[in-house]
Design brief:
There is one protein chain. With about 475 residues, the protein is of the alpha/beta class. The chain has 4 domains: about 1-120, Immunoglobulin-like, CATH 2.60.40; about 130-230, no CATH class; about 230-325; about 340-474, Glutaredoxin, CATH 3.40.30. The protein has 18 helices and 16 strands. Strands 3-2-5-6-8 form a 5-stranded mixed sheet. A 5-stranded mixed sheet has the order 14-13-12-15-16, covered by helices on one side. Strands 4-1-7-9 form a 4-stranded mixed sheet, with no helix packed on it. Strand 5 and strand 6 form a beta hairpin. Helix 6 (about 180-200) packs parallel to helix 8. The chain is globular, with a radius of gyration of 26 Å. It starts with a helix and ends with a helix.
Length: about 475
Amino acid sequence: MIRLVFFIGFVFSFLNIALAQKAITKLSGVNKTYIGQTLKVLTYSDLISNNLIVLDSAIVDQQGFFEFQIPLEQTVFASLPLGIFLSVIYLEPRSDYEVVLPDFQPKSQVDFLNPFFKPVEIYLGLKNADTLDLNFQLANFNETYHNYLDNNYYYIVKNPLKANIDSVIETMEQPFISVNNTYFYNYRKYSYGWLKYITILRDSRYLIREYFNNQPIQYTNSAYMDLFNQVFANYLSFYSNTSEGQRVFSDIAYAKSPTYAYQTFENNMVLMNDTLQEMVLLKGLHDAFYSNDFPVQSMIITLDSMICCAKVSYHKEIAANIKKKVLQGKSGFQAPQFQLFNSKGIMRKNSDYLTHYVYLNFISIDSYTCREELELLKALYEKHKSDFKVVSISIDENITEVQKYFNEHGYVWDLLSFTNQKELIDLYKVKAFPSFYLINPEGNLVLSPANSPSENFEWYFFKLMQSNKRSQNR
């Protein structure tokens, strides 16, 4: 009987822990300028790959009210895309935030057509916050911190000894020393670490020993990860060019082995910690995909090994996130999936076009270049409609007007609107309009980006068909 009571008590304790871990954080507010819109709260899947994920979404009702309910286990940095604004907030578990949104100001067509446009980043207004709220404290600290950087740039860069950094840190710390919040404490600690690194330390080994080796990894703390990403930027490329780390190139390029890489890391006496080694390798692989210093296929196999067998389960997730990011929109891999509506409200998706090549393009009829390419595309389509399908994705808000323009000019291929899946612009890494892509019958990107009609796409497609025929004959 005693054992049964103990077991029941254990079950209830376990359930209480599970419920505590999944405690809901609420985010709510009222703003009638967003009526009918779907708002999303985003965060990063991790702070190496920086892939955005949706924490929750909500439709603003006819009174302008919205509410998000987000299960959180730890503090995270989150954002709400709001037209030309990007509102940011730090969300803590088991908290209730009443927020104030700026009145909605949509992106103009010029903004969409501008590849360099960035939304205005603002703190999300809080109605019910007190002076001890994490967001309030962070805002105050960041203002002091960045004012110091702005006003002392010369000394920091040219004469760091005169920056009196220890005294500056002591002064900065005084207003916050009694604030009892672990996230905020570590945020300040690693912000100060960065100040020391760029002024008096300037020695990555000392910094690694003091701030990272045998220290708990703060996976969701933005200041910790900012410092980590700076200190270990392009680390595989850097380390492979040192006498102690030169073997790391063969560890990745030929052996494709995380285990061998860790053994080489141990030649650096401040990289003896297993957990830190895994994080450093993940960061190194992420950056190496963009430096082209290691064979891509070897890095993919190394990532696959980490997805399978990393000692820390969260590192498996980071490895998968990195692989998803670096292969997304890349020739030879699956095209990002879309589910978009045409002007009649009929949904089209990638699978509707399997068994055909698809010449996919992102366009706007407000762009003179797009209109020119569409006219050339018309001639190309009429000549090759049995060889490939053409699908145009319009970034114009009014798909009916775009369809009218298509009808007037005799463009009879599929036209889709991006309005319900605007993230496709990022998934396909669209940098300008128009942009073109070629997808094969298996749904993989063959050319990403592809040449436009005016850039002799027809010749490239002809060469591709010739190559395919030769392969079949073999």
